[in-house]
Design goal:
Elements (H helix, E strand, L loop, with lengths): L2 E6 L6 H14 L4 E5 L6 H5 L8 E4 L2 E5 L2 H8 L1 H13 L4 H8 L4 H16 L4 E5 L3 H21 L11 H4 L10 H22 L4 E7 L3 H16 L4 E9 L9 H17 L4 E6 L8 H12 L14 E6 L2 E7 L8 E6 L2 E6 L2 E6 L9 E7 L2 E6 L1
Parallel strand pairs: 1-5, 1-6, 2-4, 2-5, 6-7, 7-8
Antiparallel strand pairs: 3-4, 9-10, 10-15, 11-12, 12-13, 14-15
The structure holds adenosine-5'-diphosphate (ADP) and magnesium ion (MG).
The site of magnesium ion has 5 residues, from α1.
Length: 386
């Protein structure tokens, strides 16, 4: 596997079109390319004007597509665990359908989309995977789930370290709990391990590039800034920003005010995303559908650049020790200090930005230190630990 490219951004900005255009471009260059839709509202079939199924479906030379069905993903990867959790909640008096709903933990569905990735990477069948994801909020959940789950698993089910008795901390609050059998434990352990590996693939800047797609208007631009902060917070490598649907000067009088905002945003972009490679694509006169036109769109977008390149490798978190001072530096360009909450919880640095929370496992030398002050220097949060 040479590369995974994941596009994210607000609904309607053009993620699916751009993902499909990129996949068509790469397949045209001879790369064996798989495009995966993880948006439950799939539109890849529409973009390619061909029926794409739940397993990789050939679209043409070197090009395959997959629109993942959540139900099938859960059944093929989480079945035993889900059945156990359903039983667990049912034994606590919930009716079967409520128990089943609750057994689908938050993020479960999103994470299910990721579980196919490992098989595809290991199969050796593809050189490139392009991921067309759901609108920002959902895809952030998808990207944060492996980490959230590994934290949960390590704390509550310290699998790998002990045997079945480790289940006790979870079930302690309940009474008369059906004990998970070996199948459930095995399922849970293999899920946990594969999510950990998938997270490593997605967070590996040499393998995965996350690219933000936006339109030149305030709403999508602001959402893009937030998404960027959160993606950095979760340690993913965002290497490019695509401004799609740019109005050309000849758009005329009717679009005058749109163009005014667009000009402001285009000016702000360079200051706002100094680390990212910027691409822009004009609004086209009609919809781009079908492989041939999508490939042209891909060429218009990337021009002389290679979509497989890594355009930036900004390291979002670094731990530094100098002159007896311990500092954690974190790139969070759009977070403002008032909205950030920091504390050390048992050797883990907890960073909360509005509704998001991330826990950094501190290196041993930092683990007994507490954040005492924090200051922003060039979009980087410098946290002093004492
Ligand atoms: N550069 C563009 N010019 C004109 N229309 C575009 C462009 N990019 C996308 N579109 C159109 O915008 C609509 C939404 O695009 P889509 O790729 O489905 O967005 P998303 O996946 O982000 O929701 C579609 O009708 C698509 O054809
Ligand atoms: Mg889409």
């Amino acid at each position: 596997m040479e590369k995974i490219i994941l596009y994210t951004g607000k609904g309607g900005v053009g993620k699916t079109s751009i993902a499909a255009a990129t996949a068509s471009l790469l397949a045209g260059k001879g790369k064996r390319t798989l495009i995966i839709s993880t948006d439950p509202a799939h539109s890849l079939s529409d973009a390619f004007e061909t029926q794409i199924g739940n397993s990789p479906t050939e679209i043409g030379d070197n090009l395959w597509g997959q629109e993942i069905s959540v139900i099938e993903a859960i059944n093929s990867h989480w079945k035993e665990l889900k059945m156990y959790l359903t039983g667990l909640f049912q034994s606590q008096g919930l009716d079967p359908s409520t128990a089943e709903e609750i057994a689908t933990l938050p993020g479960f569905e999103e994470a299910s989309h990721l579980l196919y990735l490992e098989d595809h990477i290991k199969s050796g069948k593809y050189d490139v995977i392009v991921m067309d994801s759901a609108p920002t909020g959902e895809s952030l959940k998808l990207l944060s789930f492996p980490e959230a789950m590994s934290w949960y698993m390590e704390k509550i089910f310290p699998i790998g370290r002990t045997t079945a008795k480790v289940i006790r901390p979870l079930v302690r609050p309940f009474t008369s709990i059906p004990f998970p059998n070996d199948e459930v434990l095995g399922n849970m352990e293999s899920l946990y391990n594969s999510l950990k590996r998938i997270r490593d693939y997605l967070a590996d800047p040499d393998l995965t590039s996350i690219r933000l797609v936006t339109n030149p208007n305030r709403m999508s631009f602001n959402e893009t800034k937030r998404a960027y902060t959160y993606l950095l917070l979760y340690g993913y490598n965002v290497d490019a920003l695509i401004i799609n649907k740019v109005y050309p000067p000849e758009s005329g009088e009717f679009f005058k005010l749109w163009i005014k905002v667009q000009d402001e945003i285009l000016k702000e972009t360079n200051d706002a995303f100094p680390d990212l490679k910027l691409f822009s694509l004009k609004i086209s006169k009609s919809e781009t559908l079908g492989r041939v036109d999508l490939e042209k769109m891909g060429k218009d977008l990337y021009r002389d650049e290679d979509p497989l390149a890594v355009f930036t490798k900004a390291k979002p978190v670094t731990y530094e020790k100098s002159n007896g001072k311990y500092t954690v530096k974190m790139k969070l360009p759009f977070a403002s200090k008032e909205k950030i909450n920091l504390f050390n919880s048992k050797g883990e640095l907890v960073v909360e930005v509005e509704n998001w929370r991330r826990i950094f496992y501190l290196p041993t030398t930092f683990s007994d230190k507490n954040p005492v002050s924090a200051e922003f220097i060039n979009g980087e949060l410098n946290i002093e630990m004492v």
